[in-house]
Request: fold
Amino acid sequence: MDSSSMTIQASTPTNDSSLTEWLDYMQQIHVSAIDMGLSRVLPVAERLGVVQSAKEDTYIFTVAGTNGKGSTTAMISELCQAAGYKTALYQSPHLIEFNERVRINGEMVSDETLIAAFHQVEVARLQCGLTLSFFEMTTLAALLIFSEADCEVWVLEVGLGGRLDVVNIIDPDLAVITNIGIDHVDWLGDNIETIGREKAGILREGIPLIYGATEMPDSIVKLIEQHNVTCYQVGQDFYYREVEANCEVNNNSEDKKNTNVKPTWQYSNAAVTLQLPRPKLSLTNTANAVSAVLASPLDIGIDAIKQALSSVKLAGRFDYRQIADRHWLFDVAHNEHGVDFMLAQLLALWQQHRQQANNKTATIKIVFSMLADKDIELVIKRLTQADLPISEWFIAEIDYPRAASVEQLVAAMSAHIPQDNIHTFESLPQAAKAIILDSQPQDLLLVCGSFHTIGETLSALAIELI
Reply:
């Protein structure tokens, strides 16, 4: 049976319904949570006018890749905003509030705005006689909101893959592929070439592509040639490197002790070399974002770039905070590639942290949980193989249908971690409370494994997203 005719009965909300009621409804009306393909969503999008609107006086950045999409889209959005463009940003998933997914000029849209858009999407869906998945419904709503707000720049993060993702109904003016790794094998394939072909499905004839990895699958090379795409690849067409902190010292001898340490980095391509302030996001993703805006026709000068780099923030991406007299690091790493990327940064952070703590007994403790359809054991293996003093693991089941059970998590850990170092809890809030009680101020508390792990832990710690 065609999934377009598989309707699950649910009570339709109204404009007076709450955001929660709408979100619950949209999770029930389609036969599956993930349903790849554009055939069902395109007629609804056409009826709403979002495809046509995206072609009129807008510039579209579409970002795909295995990891780093959130940081890259956040940085592109910040760069465009700093230059004065009215900028729409669509990301997924969210950490705490659904509204995080849909932003205009950095601000989350209101519940009322989302509800009004959901209602319009639902009307169009029913007129077309189709069912849509939660992600399809919510993505169409985001695109409709951006269209009605007359945003000049749209920055769109692909949810899954590229070719068959609902975001791909919009033709980009510039594409970014951050990297290619093995993830979502049930939907994208189990090898780099197949996954690369799916990610590169966002390419269009003659547009620029920013490619953020030094190795490129042959499948992407072929699509670049097929679509006459101009590709800018890291390590070949643009470069970045960290620069030693610049200490500016007042010439007055009495003020020699007053130094202003400014961490910087250097970006370069064939046209420019820029000395820039160090952002709070990864330099790899930042360099991709800077390359994207420089390759676009948008008027984004050096002052706007510096301003954006100094102000950009994204919760859960190598997100270092001090909470409850403890040092925390939140990172959404949930696959092999993401964990390796996190660990490369964590090794440097740990060295700095240990020196500042000046305590040889300082250790790293982890709040950890994952979804069941991920390679849990491989992620654990990567974490345990790192040259880091990880002493204890605090685990619990994520409050989400696809969550791995505590039993599954323990089974994956058994070959790599002593049983005495594993502490199990009924919920992540309980695990967060326990790790505080069982740690010292000099320790580093790492939270990782899933967007859901970060979101539930942050909620438990009553921290607002910044």
Observations:
- The two ends are 46 Å apart (CA to CA).
- The longest strand covers residues 238-249.
- The longest helix spans residues 336-357.
- Confidence is low (pLDDT under 50) at residues 1-8, 246-259.
